[in-house]
């Protein structure tokens, strides 16, 4: 076990014990000094689930809950589930399964309602929503924005953060305003796969050196992630599970102690109301 002397949180990764590396990825993360994980459920279709109702998402969410339970046995800190509906589902419903955009919107909102039950019961930390990062028709775009706004309503109601998958952007102030209008503070909206700076939501920065350097210099709240997909068919599609602890070491070597504190203690407390120091057992 490497000691970094600080909590180390990967804010967005996936674990698939059945098809991927699962808990071995958690062991790698912990061995390099990683302590805390936010585990996001995989897109439903990658687990072979073709939902027709909100309750049909349950097996997807249960898979994540179970792997988080097991990860908690390995980590010196903690893991938490982040549950929701991947925005790419809208295209699978409309293009492949004959749904109208309005019907797709209803099903995806119902899936989010199901995820919200887990948050309400204390079995998940936050919700996941967003909109497609690729070109879609105006009707699909509008339906996707409606789904995302529904997630903000749920987040406000539950007092929990909402992680977003969106197009690449450095300014999402309009989206943050939609959240604020519904009673969810902008800083509790987290854009995953972010660059080093972002106007509006809190950026969850992909842990590449140039993005992290920008985030460290910006003096603003940020999180770090890998978006490890744990998919044997897509090796190297994203960063591996060792990346966040490695980049934390790199930041510390560069004298960016304050940025490390911001990304792994202050911002997690501000966004999720979690205490990464208090939950560190070693
Ligand atoms: Zn992801």
Question: Your description of this structure?
Answer:
This protein has 282 residues and is an alpha/beta fold. It has a single domain, classed as Metal-dependent hydrolases (TIM Barrel), CATH 3.20.20.140. It has nine helices and eight strands. The chain has helices at 23-31, 58-74, 89-96, 101-120, 138-158, 173-181, 209-218, 243-253, 257-272, and strands at 9-13, 36-40, 79-84, 126-130, 162-165, 189-194, 202-206, 223-225. An eight-stranded parallel beta sheet has the order 1-2-3-4-5-6-7-8. Helix 1 links the parallel strand 1 (9-13) and strand 2 (36-40). Helix 1 (23-31) runs parallel beside helix 2 (58-74), helix 3 (89-96) packs antiparallel against helix 4 and helix 4 (101-120) packs parallel to helix 5. It is globular. The chain starts with 8 loop residues before the first strand and ends in a 10-residue tail after the last helix. The model has no long low-confidence stretch (mean pLDDT 96).
Question: Could you provide a short overview of the structure?
Answer:
By secondary structure, the chain is of the alpha/beta class. It is built from 9 helices and 8 strands.
Element layout with pairings:
Elements: E1 9-13, H1 23-31, E2 36-40, H2 58-74, E3 79-84, H3 89-96, H4 101-120, E4 126-130, H5 138-158, E5 162-165, H6 173-181, E6 189-194, E7 202-206, H7 209-218, E8 223-225, H8 243-253, H9 257-272
Parallel strand pairs: 1-2, 2-3, 3-4, 4-5, 5-6, 6-7, 7-8
The structure holds zinc ion.
